[in-house]
Design goal:
Length: 80
C-alpha cells in the first residue's frame, strides 16, 4: 500500500486523558513526522496537530484508537 502524507488534528476536551493520548501517539510514532501541542490556559482543553506519513491503514489505526477515547475528537486529512 502506498504511503501518503497528511495531517491529524486532535482536540482533547479532558486533559486528564493526556497520558492515554501520549501512549497511543508513542505506539504510532513511526508515522508521526511532527507534533505540536497547544494547551489553553485556564481550560481543560488542548489541541494537538500532527504531520504524518503512512499508509491509509496506519493513519486510520491511529485516528481510530484516539477517536474511541471519550473526550477526544480527531480528524485526518491525507494528500491524494
Amino acid at each position: 500500500m502506498e504511503k501518503r502524507i497528511g495531517t491529524i488534528t486532535v482536540l482533547v476536551s479532558d486533559r486528564e486523558l493526556s497520558h492515554q493520548v501520549n501512549d497511543i501517539l508513542s505506539t504510532h510514532g513511526n508515522i508521526i513526522l511532527c507534533r505540536q501541542g497547544l494547551p489553553f490556559n485556564g481550560s481543560r482543553v488542548a489541541v494537538i496537530s500532527l504531520i504524518v506519513e503512512g499508509t491509509s491503514d496506519e493513519v486510520n489505526a491511529l485516528t481510530g484508537r484516539l477517536g474511541r477515547l471519550q473526550g477526544i475528537t480527531c480528524k485526518a486529512i491525507l494528500a491524494s
